[in-house]
Amino acid sequence: MIKFFLMVNKQGQTRLSRYYEHVEIKKRTMLEAEVIKNCLSRSKDQCSFIEYKDFKLVYRQYAALFVVVGIDHTENEMAVYELIHNFVEVLDKYFSRVVS
Amino acid sequence: MPAPIRLRELIRTIRTARTQAEEREMIQKECAAIRSSFREEDNTYRCRNVAKLLYMHMLGYPAHFGQLECLKLIASQKFTDKRIGYLGAMLLLDERQDVHLLMTNCIKNDLNHSTQYVQGLALCTLGCMGSSEMCRDLAGEVEKLLKTSNSYLRKKAALCAVHVIRKVPELMEMFLPATKNLLNEKNHGVLHTSVVLLTEMCERSPDMLAHFRKNEKLVPQLVRILKNLIMSGYSPEHDVSGISDPFLQVRILRLLRILGRNDDDSSEAMNDILAQVATNTETSKNVGNAILYETVLTIMDIKSESGLRVLAINILGRFLLNNDKNIRRAMELSFALVNGNNVRGMMKELLYFLDSCEPEFKADCASGIFLASEKYAPSKRWHIDTIMRVLTMAGSYVRDDAVPSLIQLITNSVEMHTYTVQRLYKAILGDYSQQPLVQVASWCIGEYGDLLVSGQCEEEPPIQVTEDEVLDILESILISNMSASVTRGYTLTAIMKLSTRFTCNVNRVRKIVSVYSSSIDVELQQRAVEYNTLFKKYDHMRPALLERMPVMEKVTINGLTEIVQSNGETESAVLETKSPPSGLQPLSQANDLLDLLGGTDITPVIPTAPTSKPDSTGGELLDLLGDLNLTCSPVSAPVPQIAQPPFLLDGLPSQPLFSDIAAGIPSITAYNKNGLKIDFTFERSNTNPSVTVITIQASNSTELDMTDFVFQAAVPKTFQLQLLSPSSGVIPAFNSGTITQVIKVLNPQKQQLRMRIKLTYNHKGSAIQDLAEVSNFPPQSWQ
Questions:
Q1: What is the predicted ipTM?
Q2: Cα(B695)–Cα(B91) distance, integer angstroms
Q3: Which residues of chain A make contact with B57, given a CB cutoff of 8 A?
Q4: Exposed, middle or buried, B678 (CB in 10 Å: 0-12/13-18/19+)?
Q5: What is the pTM of this model?
Q6: How far apart are CA B158 and CA B456, in angstroms?
Q7: Which helix (H) or strand (E) holds B229?
Q8: Which of B66, B178, B306, B434 has a CA-to-CA distance to B235 between 20 and 30 Å?
Q9: Per the record, GO CC terms (chain A) (predicted)?
Q10: What is the pLDDT of residues B507-550, one digit of tens each?
Q11: Do B240 and A82 touch (CB under 8 A)?
């Protein structure tokens, strides 16, 4: 199950967030900051799937924007990875010329 | 009041803020404007205001005052209002707010609305944040919509049903009749959500699962759909990088997995399609890999036939070779999948991978292979072969503690000795740079050298080796710059042992050994000196001392056992493998092979503890020889002594000597000043992993005794300390005796052990007091 869907830029500013479970507002900012920290510290040849607390993060970088999806163990990580890409492609098609 | 700004303007404005404080200011200003606008009950701009509020909420600012406004928007007739209203409801409201119940009526009305989009909105919202009461009330409506022919609505209704079931599991049966026709749809959206619904049902209730397996003929239906997906040509709607709707494929595979688990009929029905998916899917893109990943998981989980399993293993093998970093995770998966049936096949793939992967993975892979082969090895020969392959391929990456376990394994397979030693010999002939390999090899050659030169071997054609050649290679290992100190230790001992196994080269061995008695390396020097002494004074004992090691009981890498075995022979060669309790990491255990001797004329046996090398405690053969003159010999390593000189025995000694030397946990010198030295040796309790037992030994190297010696210790608050009474209050001079005292430390939180010690004693007529802090505790003593 997808727990959350985030789009965060490199400076840590949230561009889009959607939570599918209730998370308190203060915790959300903390979570987002931690998540982006984890993603930024990964190098290019490291895997895009991170174990974070009790769920997994699947992230993908598009220029200065990180799309991060938090999933639990029942999801196929690679499928979610593709989903992110699909989503970005759709945004691109729909809004034409997407920039962060 | 001027018209409130639009959302886009707001976003643009906020983005211009350069600091966090600026942003906060802007937002507060806007919030105030919105609040006053709400108070005015302005209908026209309410939607805009709420949209802005939602944006601010997303950035992390509190927006609860907008909740009621959302409700008003939902109740409005305009679609744009409803849209924002429902979105706001999903984001701002949840079950904890009382306000949400007010929505129930609105949603009910909207579920029956004439416009499908409104109905869709209502379904979405209900599926997102519906509480159990709401779900109970509205479940009937949802079920009705599940049967409608409108695919747009049907798919949303299916997802909403998933949420309802999650909140109120009792309602599951209600949706059962509706599911009958769900899979007959052509629309992928409906298919997808239906599969999700079915998955949820099956996961939650075993009855449902049984029902679906038998009555519904679910499996054939799913198989048919999957087949269509794969076989159908290019369909632009569903295409992702050349594969038709991979997301649906993955979902179906997961549902098949749940259905096929522990059920032969279902598993049989899906065998074909799984094979087809596995072979037909392209792996050039990640999409294909995602599908294959799911397929492999499924194959492994159901009762598939062996051909299918082999296919799955091949796929995994391909994954491992793929350079994509994401695929490497398959490695962890494959270790988990190894079991008795497929171990040979898996091992082949894994060895392949070991060969080709990058160094960072090699250590983990090697350890994983060892673990797996130990658990599932079909035959001893295979096991040894596999281990040797790993050693030759990734020898330098193998963890140090794997060496003793390998040695122990080899001693266990008695009939394989000749074969093993031959292969090892051949392996190091060409190249002796890989330390673990060399260590194991030299140990084996030392033990079984006679088998090596005998020229007889059953398992493979024997090689003709002479004693000189063997000694040649061992000597070159000793001399080589590439050999680590530990390896040299192994080799020296091996050469020594050969002095009894080989018949004609005793003098050569003697020469080699005496060369090292002035080596700079303290460990080597000590060994060489001891062996020299053995040659000189105790030559008659040499054969018995260097006898073949007895078979050790099997200690698994996770093992807990304390094993003591003694030979029935004259000089008892006692093997003790003492392993630390399971509180430690499984692979950081050390097996110590100690040769302990109680000699006839030999008085105090002085154990040689490798205090100077805490990380090499694994697998060292510590030969203990007693020699009272050792203090005068050119040994500079500090030698902790046992409290009492034990066992002066004449005749046959049969009492083994034990010391708690380096029993997996290296000992430390806690204090060493003014001639007073205090050593800590550690033991962990098997029954209670938070207890560490520390035995302190205090020795005095000055010329006068230290009297009235009192040792006190203090630990941080999270620990508890128990100090037992010391052996005596006097530490005799010249290191001729020690005081022993036992400390028990309870460390329930497994924090880093630290201790402050206070020492008081009388020395040379004056009272001396000292405080010190001990912080060099080895991690194994408190983790």
A1: 0.87
A2: 62
A3: 25
A4: buried
A5: 0.57
A6: 73
A7: helix B218-231
A8: B178
A9: cytoplasm; endomembrane system
A10: 788 888 888 877 778 888 888 888 888 878 777 777 777 777 76
A11: yes
